[in-house]
Amino acid sequence: MRKILPVLLLLLLLACSPKARYVEFKGYAQGGTYTVKANLAGVSVPVETVRDSIEALLKQIDTTLSGYNKASLLSRFNAGEKIPASPMFLEMYALSYGYWMRSEGALDCAAAPLYDAWGFGFKHQSFPSEADVDALRASCGFGLLPAELPVRDGFIDPAEIGSPKLNYNAVAQGYSCDVIARYLYSLGVKDMLVDIGEIWCDGVNPAGEPWSVGVQRPEEGTDGQLDGVWQSGGRPAGVVTSGNYRKFYVKDGHKYAHTVDPRSGYPVEHSLLSATVVSSNSAAEADAVATWCMVIGLQEAQQVLLADPALEGYLIYEEEGQMRQWASPGFTLRQ
């Protein structure tokens, strides 16, 4: 997440019906753009205050959880510096630790040095050796850390728990959507769409219809081509797609995915190309589970999605050179 730039378009009022008052906020956040659409009918807070509060929350996320902002609490923590015990920092740690437990180690936000080793390997065409991978697996990960960060006199000292390195890329954008949605709910907003690379939506759009989200086809060279359109049915949902199809490296004729399995220490090798996950609980959960699915592959991902009534999913995979799709029973996709 990069430092938030000035907002491009402050707000756009959209006419829907006499009872609706839709407002759209747009700007830059987390290395890309964000869009928030909300029906402010019945909300007593001025539109300018809502806009400023959204910007302030996005800035707080950037200065707390960004791995790209070198002055953020996360960057300072990873550098071994004692940091203030921010509630947001503690919440993200607890969430990520919980996802690690739930995924039985497949999703590990504390394995940053392992991910970095492969990331630099892809960048410099020099992969880590087997000995390097073994050493990293033994020295990082949530398995070496407590379930709760120790707080002393209002501060967190990474030295107390071995100076770990954290990477929240698998959860942070979804979590950001939840933070903004939480604020809008506190104002009494029901109809909303929060898009910060990942999505949280609830209720209906300005046309009075349930929100729809396009699912991109995982093919190289298809810029924006859709495999279908997911329909919310008006229910609250986090919607996230994760994929490997544009993130890989070929060396000596072998294709290496950028998704690394922290349990083995190596890039995954399976047929799953993309996973779109819908969670009725949170966008952070959808974000985490989508990454989890891309680590474990098709069959295990199907089991994860079918086992939890709060989850629905759409998996696109390759079989015998052909692209195939699988959808959980409650996933509604319009072609």
Question: How would you describe what is shown here?
Answer:
With 335 residues, the protein is of the alpha+beta class. It folds into 3 domains: 1-67 and 168-198; 85-159, no CATH class; 210-335, ApbE-like domains (T-fold), CATH 3.10.520. Helix content is 31%, strand content 26%. It is built from 8 helices and 18 strands. It has helices at residues 47-65, 73-78, 87-102, 112-124, 130-139, 172-186, 283-296, 298-307; strands at 12-14, 22-29, 32-39, 83-84, 155-156, 192-195, 199-202, 212-216, 226-231, 237-243, 248-251, 254-257, 260-261, 266-267, 272-279, 311-319, 322-327, 333-334. Strands 1-2-3-6-7-10-15-16-17 form a 9-stranded antiparallel beta sheet. It has a 3-stranded antiparallel beta sheet with strand order 8-9-18, with no helix packed on it. Helix 1 packs antiparallel against helix 6 and helix 6 runs antiparallel to helix 7 (283-296). The longest helix is centred in the N-terminal third of the chain and has 19 residues, at 47-65. The radius of gyration is 20 Å and the shape is globular. It starts with 11 loop residues before the first strand and ends with a strand. The model is unreliable at 1-18 (pLDDT under 50).
What is the 3D shape? globular
Largest sheet: 9 strands, antiparallel
Strand content: 25-35%
CATH superfamily of the largest domain: ApbE-like domains
Overall average pLDDT = 90
Q: If you compute it from the alpha carbons, what radius of gyration comes out, rounded to the nearest whole angstrom? A: 20 Å
User: N- to C-terminal separation?
Assistant: 33 Å
Count of strand segments: 18
User: What is the spatial order of strands in the main beta sheet?
Assistant: 1-2-3-6-7-10-15-16-17
SSE order: EEEHHEHHHEHEEEEEEEEEEHHEEE
- Provide the number of structural domains: 3
Relative helix content = 25-40%
Structural class: alpha+beta
Helix count?
Answer: 8
Report the uncertain regions.
1-18
* CATH fold-level name of the largest domain: T-fold
The assigned CATH architecture of the largest domain is: Roll
| Top-tier CATH class of the largest domain | Alpha Beta
Oligomer: single chain
